[in-house]
């Protein structure tokens, strides 16, 4: 429990530092893209070299903006629009996108528990996070393999809170994204959530995927855990807060809570 506390304090500090830089950087980038936009609109078309140069600059600035957004997500400073979502439906809606992003050699299995609770979370950001996890899984299965996405209702009780400084007891919707890939060694597992930590070659990985997922889920009041070992594949478990809306919203539709699951 003490190690978990130290780890969460470290993430907190790194998040504060990163957030400050990312916030200022984002403002500067807006000056750059705003002015490039004016240039783009007013360039004479008979100057193709200039048009290309400004296009390339805009492209770079937009990629930098994506990176800053991920840093802001990690530092939990992004504006979120949490609302009631049906996790099963959201995942089913991503099925085509997942198949297209993962290619033919990776089998995708979606296992939906019946009567999963509604969750309260920003739907776009959740899709984004799940896609990031799927891409990581793909990268860990260069020879092909299987990606599984499972949903379940879960209750984290004080037992978990005692083991893990970050956990608040309560009812959560669990989304587990697992793969049959390489898995992570201990070193990688220990640093996986940190921004800029990557084992991928330059240009292939930024080390911002998992840190974005981590920050987003924490900001949403949820939890995220990785279970992984070399050769055993990886499972990322996302615990989303159960939607507790007005009495009318929940009483009419919510199923009885199921037994706690790990
Ligand atoms: P990136 O994918 O850009 O490297 P991430 O933050 O998403 O950044 O991941 C950090 C590191 O964690 C990866 O470089 C990789 O070593 C490891 N990792 C993430 N997901 C998986 C996975 N599903 N299987 C094995 N290793 C993974």
From TrEMBL:
Domain spans labelled Histidine kinase? 20-244
Coiled-coil annotation: which residues? none
Q: What protein name does the entry list?
A: histidine kinase
User: According to the record, which residues of the full protein are present here?
Assistant: 270 to 531 of 655
């Amino acid at each position: 429990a003490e190690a978990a506390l130290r780890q969460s304090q470290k993430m907190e500090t790194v998040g504060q530092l990163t957030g400050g830089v990312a916030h200022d950087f984002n403002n500067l980038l807006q000056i750059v893209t705003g002015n490039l936009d004016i240039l783009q609109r007013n360039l004479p078309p008979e100057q193709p070299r200039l048009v290309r140069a400004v296009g390339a600059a805009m492209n770079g600035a937009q990629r930098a903006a994506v990176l800053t957004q991920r840093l802001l997500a990690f530092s939990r400073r992004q504006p979120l629009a949490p609302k009631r979502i049906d996790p099963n439906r959201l995942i089913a809606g991503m099925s085509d996108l997942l198949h297209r992003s993962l290619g033919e050699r990776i089998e995708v299995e979606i296992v939906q528990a019946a009567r999963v609770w509604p969750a309260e979370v920003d739907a776009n950001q959740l899709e984004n996070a799940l896609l990031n996890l799927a891409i990581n899984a793909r990268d860990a299965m260069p020879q092909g393999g299987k990606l599984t996405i499972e949903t379940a209702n879960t209750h984290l009780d004080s037992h978990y809170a005692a083991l893990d400084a970050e956990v608040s007891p309560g009812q959560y919707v669990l989304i587990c994204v697992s793969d049959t890939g390489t898995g992570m060694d201990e070193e990688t597992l220990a640093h996986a959530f940190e921004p800029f930590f990557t084992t991928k070659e330059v240009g292939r990985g930024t080390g911002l995927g998992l840190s974005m997922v981590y920050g987003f889920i924490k900001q949403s009041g949820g939890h995220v855990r990785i279970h992984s070992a070399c050769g055993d594949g990886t499972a990322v478990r996302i615990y989303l807060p159960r939607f507790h809306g007005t009495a009318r919203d929940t009483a009419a539709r919510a199923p009885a809570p199921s037994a706690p699951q790990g």
